[in-house]
């Protein structure tokens, strides 16, 4: 008979009742089903289906609440706690949160998930039988992925980051599309597990998509114009930048490309809000 193992769902017989609950058995091993872990329908005279996990003292325990993630089954789990020394804890639907070890998280702490982020995980045990969350690898993601079509081009999508690379970020969308966000298509690198919203800018032959987190030109133009005006207002309504400023100076000051800067500045000039003179831009009275 197999040994009782954390992370699995088993059906056991009731062996005996104790002060805190009932001990269940497979004929060789016992495990405690605490009163707090019992649900309606418990009958001490009938076999009980339970999920096995370690309690807060590290002892194997049972619950009649079956989580939405078990060994070998992957699902999204919400991050509920971050511990610098351990990693992050996720909620799988039982009273005990499950640790995703810091060894499986990004080397850069700022890219760790935060509370409220979501990770696509299953369960695993270490050599000591302790239960941990296991991040999905690429093959698992591709196994659940759906294929986008050309009709999805330019659609808005929402997804969660599951793989971080220097050149970009991979996400899995609500539709289960695999999306890639090139570093040029984002203002900052998303955290692992972070929810992002963007639009599909290309649909590949394999059904995966390229996604941009940058707004459409007409959307970003207004945001960039507001940023330029805010900067000018902080300097008394003028700034030492105009449409012939270098791309490097514009990027350093405004964190935007020269093309975006010129579009926003042109919008403000067309609306009669600003004017340029000898390398400076001024707000009109």
Number of helices: 4
Strand content: 35-45%
Poorly predicted parts? none
For the termini, the CA-CA separation is 86 Å
Classification by helices and strands: alpha+beta
Q: Name the helix and strand elements from N-terminus to C-terminus, one letter apiece.
A: EEEEEEEEEEHEEEEEHEHHEE
**Number of DSSP-assigned strands:** 18
Going across the major beta sheet, what is the strand order? 1-2-3-5-4
The CATH class of the largest domain, by name, is: Mainly Beta
CATH architectural name of the largest domain? Beta Barrel
Helix content: 10-25%
Radius of gyration: 27 Å
Keywords summarizing the entry:
single chain, 37% strand, 4 helices, 5-stranded mixed barrel, OB fold (Dihydrolipoamide Acetyltransferase, E2P), 4 domains, 5-stranded antiparallel sheet, 285 residues, alpha+beta
Give a concise summary:
This protein has 285 residues and is α+β, with helices and mostly antiparallel strands. 16% of the residues lie in helices and 37% in strands.
């Amino acid at each position: 008979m197999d040994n009782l193992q954390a992370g699995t769902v088993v059906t056991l017989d009731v062996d005996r009742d104790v002060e805190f609950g009932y001990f269940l058995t497979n004929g060789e091993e016992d495990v405690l089903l605490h009163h707090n872990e019992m649900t309606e329908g418990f009958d001490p005279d009938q076999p009980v289906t339970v999920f096995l996990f370690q309690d807060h003292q590290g002892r194997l325990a049972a619950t009649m609440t079956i989580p939405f993630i078990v060994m070998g089954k992957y699902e999204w789990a919400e991050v509920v706690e971050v511990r610098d020394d351990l990693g992050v804890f996720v909620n799988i639907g039982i009273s005990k949160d499950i640790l995703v070890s810091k060894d499986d998280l990004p080397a850069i702490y700022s890219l760790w998930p935060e509370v409220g982020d979501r990770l696509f995980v299953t369960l695993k045990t270490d050599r000591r039988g302790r239960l941990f969350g296991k991040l999905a690898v690429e093959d698992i993601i591709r196994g659940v992925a759906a294929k986008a079509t050309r009709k999805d081009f330019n659609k808005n999508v929402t997804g969660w980051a599951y793989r971080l690379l220097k050149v970009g970020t991979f996400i899995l969308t609500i539709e289960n599309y695999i999306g890639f966000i090139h570093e040029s298509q984002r203002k900052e690198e998303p955290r692992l597990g972070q929810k992002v919203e963007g639009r599909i800018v290309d649909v590949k032959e394999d059904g995966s998509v390229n996604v941009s987190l940058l707004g459409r030109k007409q959307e970003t133009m207004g945001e960039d114009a507001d940023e330029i005006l805010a900067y000018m207002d902080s300097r008394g309504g003028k700034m030492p930048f105009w449409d012939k400023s270098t791309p490097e100076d514009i990027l350093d000051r405004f964190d935007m490309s020269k093309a975006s800067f010129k579009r926003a500045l042109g919008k403000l000039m067309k609306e009669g809000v600003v004017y340029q003179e000898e390398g400076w831009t001024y707000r009109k009275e």
